[in-house]
Each structure stands twice: as C-alpha cells, then as structure tokens.
Amino acid sequence: AEDGIRDVERSRGLGDVYKRQVDVRPIFMYGRYRKLIRALPQTRWPCRACRGRPGGCESCNNTGLQYLESVQDLIGEPIRLALAAEDTSFHGMGREDIDVRCLGQGRPFVIEIKKPGTRIVNLEEIQNIVNLNAKEKVEINSLRWSNRSEVVLSLIHISEPTRPLYISYAVFCL
To answer: Mind telling me the catalytic residues?
Structure first.
C-alpha cells in the first residue's frame, strides 16, 4: 500500500477486526562532510582475511573490519541512535582515497535511515551530536531532510567520469 500499511488477513468470527502489517519507510538526510584526518576510509571495510564474517578473525582482532572507524560510521551511528533506527546506509557523492583529507566545503552525502523509531528530530542537534562524536576526525554541515531521488542522483554522479583521460604529474628530485 502507498501509506506502508496493508491488511494481512481478516480475523474470522470477530466482526471487523483486521491484522495489520506496517512497513516503516526509510527517511533521508542530506549534508556535507569534511574528513579532517588521513587513514580513515569513507565506508566500512570488511577484513580481507575473513571477509567481514561475524566474530571476525585474528587478523582483524575479531571485529570483521579492516579499519575500526569510517566516515560512514562516524556519521551514521549517532544518527541511527538518535532516531532509534534499525540501520543506516551511507551514500557518498564520489569516492576518495583512504590517505587523503577532504576539506573545503566538504563532500556531499545522503544518509538513509532504515526503520526509524522516531521521525521527529532537530537537525541542528543531530549535526552537533555527530560533530562532537567525531571530533577532530569528521565534521558535517548543511544537514537537511532529503529523499530517495537524491540517492539516485548521487549514484549517477559517481558513475560519470570525473577525470580527464590523461593525468600529468610533476616530479621534483632533490
């Protein structure tokens, strides 16, 4: 159903009593992030040895992750907790190497909040919580409500060629 509520079955012998199933639709937020440190991946990296299996392995200290923190988690986890959501998906507009910082106005992102327990939040408070949690690692700004169509635009943006065919470098020998 359009509203996310549908009748599953009508109770027999109880008059007009229905069982209802509710689909909790995701909500979306758009913002920009600045990555202030190096050696921080944009998204979660599963361990190469165990491929991120639950419980991990010796190589990843039983975490299942190559890196314990990511931009995705530093932004997504405080938002997930604030909205009592089941999970989040991070949609960054463009990719970046792990060993670079992202400064200036920041890189655009859309975060999809899956099965939120609440939809009533103060975006400025959420932004402050994320920035406090990720202090000196990641900062977000321009947080606003968004929709699924911006996720589609982010995917189109990163699939288009963004570099010239030839890249030239200058090398200085000392």
So the answer is: 97
Three-state secondary-structure class, residue 106: strand
Q: Find residue 107's DSSP bridge partners.
A: 33
Q: Which residue has the higher pLDDT, 104 or 20?
A: 104
CB 144 within 8 A of CB 30: yes
- What is the number of other CB atoms lying within 10 angstroms of the CB of residue 51? 10
* CA distances to 24, 25, 113, 116, 143 from 119, in Å: 11, 11, 10, 7, 15
pLDDT score of 163 more than 50: no
* Pairwise pLDDT comparison (116 vs 159), residue with the higher score: 116
Cβ atoms of 99 and 132 within 8 Å: the answer is no
Give every strand in the sheet of 138-146, ordered side by side: 87-92, 102-114, 27-35, 138-146
15/168: higher pLDDT = 15
Cβ(87)–Cβ(114) under 8 Å? yes
Query: 10-39: b or e for each residue (b if 16 or more CB lie within 10 Å)?
Result: eeeeeeeeeeeeeeeebbbbbbbbbbeeee
DSSP SS3 for 71: helix
In the structure, what pLDDT confidence band is assigned to residue 95 with cuts at 50, 70 and 90? confident
3-state secondary structure of 92: strand
